[in-house]
Every structure is written in C-alpha cells, then in structure tokens.
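Hi support team,

I'm filing this because I wasn't sure whether my run with glycinamide ribonucleotide finished correctly. The job status page said complete, but I'd like someone to confirm that the output block is well-formed before I use it downstream. Pasting the exact inputs I used:
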Amino acid sequence: MVKKNACVFISGAGTNLKALLKSSREYNFPININYIISNTKQAKGLKLAKLYKIPFRVLDLNKTANLEFFFKELQKKKISLICLAGYMRILNKNFINRFNKKIINIHPSLLPKYKGLDTFRKVLKNNEKLTGCTVHYVNNRLDSGKIILKKKIFIESSDNEKTLKTKVQAKEYRAYSESIISIFR
Ligand code: GAR
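And here is everything the job wrote out:
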C-alpha cells in the first residue's frame, strides 16, 4: 500500500498523536506521519515527535511569514492530510482555503452538540446521559464541518470532568484511526 503523508497539529499532551503514531506503524494504515506542528513549545506531545524521530516545528500560523514557510514545507513533504489532534487554535480562512486537501479534527463531544471549549463541564451541567467524540472535516466555521465518525459513551452519576475525559479520550484514539481508514478507503 502506498501511504499518504500526513501532518499532525497539537497543542497539549499529544495522546491522540500517540495513538495515530501507533496506527501509522501498521503496514495497512493509510497514512504516515511526516511532520508535527505545535503552536506552543510547552506541548508535551512534542516529546513524541522526538521519540519517533519525526520532524516538528513550533509555529504561530497566524503570522504570514510562518504561513509561507509552512506551505513550502507541506509541498516539499507532499502532505495530503492535516490532522488536528488537540490543536487549540482556530485555523483562519486563508489557511483553510489555501490548503486544498483534507483537514480533519477530533472534538470531545457528539457534534453538533457542545462546540468549542469546556465540553465536559457543559455536558455534566446539562445532565446529559450520553456524550462522546466526533471526527469531522474542518471548514470555516468552528467544529461545524462534515462529520466523519462519532463514538458514544454513557455517563454515570459518579462521573466528573476527569472521568469523562478519560472515557471520551479512550474512544477518541480508536475514532481517529478508524476515520482515517474510512476517508482513504
Ligand atoms: C482531545 O480530547 C481532543 O478531543 C480535544 O483536546 C484533547 C487533546 O488531547 N480537542 C479539542 O477540544 C478541540 N476543540 P491530547 O493532546 O492528549 O490528544
């Protein structure tokens, strides 16, 4: 199988990145991860880039000069998929329009419910019985692009933000890899 090249954007712990890196090591997974971008050098996930020896950059993509550099890199590396994995910046319109290939994101709620931040707190406050995660294409509106896949979890009365996060993220790791398989099928 000829794998496509992908770039993963992170801002934090990088546990989704880790799951994707593991999947990408399987011979029949459709992508290789060739490049990792973080908006902050504090992102713990950058350690994974070093561990797996994958080129990475800390870049503020709201700066035009960085954007020019980044798009050149994407061309050089023949990147055909961008995966947002806990990337906590909004990509601007120009960026999305300029990258004419796929950009996908994972979000910790059952979209279209609970777009934006603080999903676990909002879900608990509204006494939801179900929540989960969604993988979707990125468009110009926040957390609103076409949905690729959702996975659900049941909320128990003993759940709090921390336990919900753990349960939802366990689903995310499978959801993200399954989504990538499905979009290249
Ligand atoms: C993930 O749970 C992801 O769904 C969420 O950030 C977490 C990152 O964790 N993304 C968003 O909230 C995007 N709006 P990770 O760095 O351990 O993968």
